[in-house]
Design brief:
heterodimer; A: 151 residues; alpha/beta; Rossmann fold; 4 helices; 5 strands; 31% helix; B: 472 residues; alpha+beta; Cytochrome-c3 Hydrogenase, chain B; four-stranded mixed β-sheet; 17 helices; 44% helix; globular
Amino acid sequence: MAAARTLLIGYGNTLRGDDALGPMAVEQMRAALPYLEFVSCHQLGPELAGQMAAFDCVVFLDASSAGEPGTVQLQRLQAGVTPAGSFTHHMHPAVLLELAQTLYGRAPKAMLATGVGASFESGEGLSEAAQRALDEICRVVPRLLQSPDLW
Amino acid sequence: MPTITIDPITRIEGHSKVTIQLDDQGDVQSARFHVTQVRGFEKLCEGRPFTEMPALMARICGICPTSHLLASSKACDDIMAVHIPETAEKLRRIMNLAQITQSHALSFFYLSAPDFLLGMDSDPEERNILGVVRKFPQMARDGIKLRQFGQRVLETLGGKRVHPGWIVPGGVSHPLQAEQRDAILAEIPEAIRITRSALRWFKGQIESFRAEVRAFANFPTMFLAMANDTNEFSAYNGWLRFIDANLNIVADHITGTDYMNYIGESCNDDSYLKTTYFKPLGPQDGIYRVGPLARLNMCQSAGTPQADEELAEFRELERHSVLSSFYYHYARLIEILFSIERMQTLLNDPEILGKNVRAHASPNNFEGVGILEAPRGTLIHHYRIDQNGLIETANMVIATGHNNLAINRGVLQVARQFVKGKKLEQGMLNRVEAVIRAFDPCLSCSTHAAGEMPLDIQLLSVDGEIVDRVRR
């Protein structure tokens, strides 16, 4: 699994407190895992589908306000298993997998790592809880990439 | 009196709702478009150094940061009283054209194509980009590729695709490199192919949307856009001109602070979106439209060969100006074609690699106005500074504000045409939303916030009881 082509996509608004967790995770792991590919963006868009199709594995890194602040949730994603609802500003990563499969003939294995934050107000910097979640994501995700049985 | 509330509106940029008042017979009496996000940027920038304004203003929106960056930098150029180097102006024009391309591609392929391809009455669970991908994958691939092209140009020139910082007061921060130019030029033939293909397809579909053409904000209004001596399409240089529905010039050569003599702004009790109007006629009669439809009605030629061919065909839709706002979509595709062709011309100009790209100066005026054509229409940034170069007041007139009167009147026209009785149907309500989408309003820009957009529509009786409700 370690040799698999892997893409990490961190997304969120860096000016909305803990929503920056995804992009900050990318910045932190980029230095530690130089052999991986990274994308940092405000939000997911259909343009990512083509890029994703060229990889074996994709890990999405996001922040959430749902759950116990400071905790991390991992979720397997699958093309074709998409949440109900139309495309708006918020595109679920599973929708991107389906786009990759349908439009480019290939969907990578995918996992969503979500850190639960405590404050999403305007401003820069993570809350203490989000920092804990960030640290945990940066510890867990590299292990995840070396453990194909977890996927 | 029964009320239908569509809250929020889906597949637009921002957060809004529509209320429709019915009489006791179930006929539409009135309809209103409300923007439910608060506006704040004009106030929060007070006291900041004027040189910070372009970077600050670009944060208004994640869709149109480049447009605000450009208008703001032009206002700062005016404060410094500089003529920016010719190469810098050409590079800024390329940025503006790339912004028009990516924004129009998003509007057409991502937000509105589900209505065109799957039908106004189709299941709302399918009527989205995923539905398009499943049933029309080639069209979806093309749409993604075209938007990517625009974004890549922004990223190549500006360093990043969202909130690029390359455009600065006095010009741009650094010159274009030959390999960057060549990379963009290499993608242009495919971008043109996609655009022409979409145009062919859309023109073939218009007959299927006759009812929408008739009812989608289809009425005489004035139009506002930038103009120039050659009467060619203008998105960066020139002055403001108002024309009427018969293409007669109403007001012309409007520059700088003179806009305040022609454009009035008013606030509304039920919406955070300001309403602008043609001041000499007042807020009741001063309705006008901006954006792709206005620009194509305004210009006599596009100035590029393929766009001119398409423009000639577009003009055959009506004897005078094209009035139906459904044709905003058509106009958007023609503008994409123009933008790509013009980018190609500018990039092939040897001067585009020139090294002199920035003029430096201290403030020489206490006031500056920057005007350009953003994807959705005329954008005005107007700043006043104090003796220390700090912002005293800022005013921004945004395309969606210019179109507010027309959007409201269009919502009423569509509601009267399609909303009947006391039982809600998805198709009728989707058309109310679709007329708003035709204008491609950007509420993040016009009120400077962002939101999410599920749909909850309630039909209320006179005493407030819910008699019908649709959610998605």
